[in-house]
Each structure stands twice: as C-alpha cells, then as structure tokens.
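Final report, closing paragraph on structural work. Over the funding period we assembled a curated collection of sequence-structure pairs, and we close with a single example.
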Amino acid sequence: MLNAVLGGKRRGTGFEGQRLTLGEAEGAEDVITATVFERMAYLPDELFSAIFSDLLGEPFGALAEPPEFWPSWYLDNGTRVEPDLLLSDGQHNLLIEAKRHDHARQQYATQLAAELLAGWRTGRLEDDCILLTLGGMSDMSSAAQQQLREEIVRALPVGTDSRFRLVCRSWQQLYQTAEHHIDAHQPPGIQRLLDDLARAYAWHGLRTHRMAWLQDLKPAGISHTPGAFDKWSL
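Its predicted structure, as stored:
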C-alpha cells in the first residue's frame, strides 16, 4: 500500500478523492505505526533483536508471536482501551504507544496507566513488562522521562510501580537505530526495507536525522589553485 499511496494510486486506500496532504489524513499516526512495524516484523530474528535491544537499552529477543496491532482491552469499569502495538519475545511484553509527532507533548500519563491496567487485567501484560512511548515528547531529557513515569505511577494503584519499565524514544531515534544496524553488509532486500521506512517518514513529515545547520557543517577542504579559472568567461 505504501507505494500505491505515494504513487498517487489512492483508489481503495481510503484517500480516494480527498484533496489533502497525505500526512495530515485522519488516522495518520496509525498508518505510520503500521507501515513501520509491519516491515520491521519481517527482519531476520538476529537483526530485529539487535535493533530493539539497542533501542530499549536492554536485551530483547526475536518475536515469539506476530505483532498485535491495536488490541482492545477493558478496565474493571468496562472502559475500552486500545494501545497501538504489543510485541513479545517470549520473555517480555513490549507495549508501544505511538504518537504522531516528535518534539510535541502528546503522551499522557492517564492514558498510559489505563493501558497498563487493562493489559494486566486481561492477562495480556505480565509483570516486568516494558512500556515504550514513541514520539509525543517535547522534551526527551532524563528528567522529563522520569517525570512522566512518576505521573503514570500516581495514576496506578499503590504497589504496582515495579510491574513495568518505561522507555521513551522518538521516531527519529527508532530510524537511526535501525539505520545503524542495517549497514552496507546487509542484503539488498534489507536495504530496501530501510528505504521504505525513510519514505514513510517523509510522507508523514517525520525527520530521520537531526537538521544540519550551515554554520555547523565542516569545511569541504576545497582549495583554489591560482589561475585555474583564468580562461573562464560568460
């Protein structure tokens, strides 16, 4: 679908007849989540594990079961919650809540706490699970991440703070981690997968790398040879 949409073939995609910027379409955060993680699920086990272990800062193995997108879980009061993605390596559950933008506050403790509670209630989350927020943080500092965790803990029942670990990452960090491990030694098919991720990011206005300012660029080291352009004229 990615190539069909980017190539203007919108019929049957939900974008048909709409005069809008694709990245501004309703549900765009769900589309970028599916586009990215559907592809990453096809990575070889060793490569998938290396990328996610690096991203999370702790060991995470190969997928033990297919990714579960937008599971519907219920709280004790009957309220339905729908986290974006659940991954499992057979040892740990990885719950992912993705937001549309980097560098914008869109992650909220009450939503994250509700997803944890519903996951524990339904038995889909075990103790020692990992909660990964992807995007939606205006400040990626350690202090900001610790503050979010404290807000989540306050929204949870007393004594449950040790049942999860919070990891906050940006979409940019996800791409750069994948790029670091998908180097020139990987097969061409894996390289094309990384290209797909870059195109999906561009579609949704997400940066794969930090903006480079002219003043920060290193000189190219080009020297001028006297007389080299003496014969040039308009």
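The chain has a mean pLDDT of 85. The CA atoms of residues 65 and 139 lie 33 Å apart. We thank the funder for supporting this effort.
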